[in-house]
Amino acid sequence: MEEKMSLIEKYSPKVSKRVLLLLAGIVWGFAGYNILRLGIPDMISNWHTPIINLIFALVIFGLFFKFVFFKMFKKHNKRINSYVKSKICAFAFFDAKGYLIMAFMITFGVLLRKSGIVNPLYLGTFYVGLGSSLAGAGVCFLVAYIKKIMKTEEINEDIPNGEITEELMR
């Protein structure tokens, strides 16, 4: 088993913490976009009172963003920034629990959509709120990535001859 772990460790793609934040932002943003892409047509083609649907979508966004995705962003951002190694596995933007949650959400979403037990208007409204909150978490990761770049650029300006050590890149 020890040998297999070293092979996985040896051949897994490695990236810096900055790039890991960027990858997390892209993945979360892409997930949000895909859910929005499913929800918007359902919501638009079935609505009679758009303002009510938009208010519900906004409420769903607020609840999921505040109580789920922003908390997950803070947890994963803290974990990513606490890595000691300068290069980390490119798939480490989630921990094991994060991947399980993602798999559950995808499975539940597909089953719910295919079952037809929920009116497309309600499902579309829910998806718009959920997709927006996921995309919002993606934006948080991208902002963290940009802040990390700006911090690195500030460090570069303070270093004579532009010499950057591995310690400064963390």
Explain the overall architecture.
There is one protein chain. The protein has 170 residues and is mainly alpha-helical. It has one domain. It is built from five helices and two strands, in the order αβααβαα. A two-stranded antiparallel ribbon has the order 1-2. The model has no long low-confidence stretch (mean pLDDT 87).
Q: Tally the beta strands.
A: 2
Biggest sheet statistics: 2 strands, antiparallel
* Basic shape: elongated
Oligomeric state: single chain
Which percent range fits the helix content? over 70%
Span of the ends, CA to CA = 31 Å
Task: Outline the low-pLDDT stretches.
Answer: none
| Lateral arrangement of strands in the main beta sheet | 1-2
Query: In sequence order, what are the helices and strands, one letter per element?
Result: HEHHEHH
Cα-based radius of gyration, to the nearest Å: 20 Å
Q: Round the mean pLDDT to the nearest integer and report it.
A: 87
SS content category: mainly alpha
Count up the helices. 5
Strand content: under 5%
Q: Number of domains in the coordinates?
A: 1
In short:
It is built from 5 helices and 2 strands; from the N terminus they run αβααβαα.
Notable features of this structure?
single chain; 170 residues; mainly alpha; two-stranded antiparallel ribbon; 2 strands; 78% helix; transmembrane; transmembrane helix; DUF3180 domain-containing protein; membrane
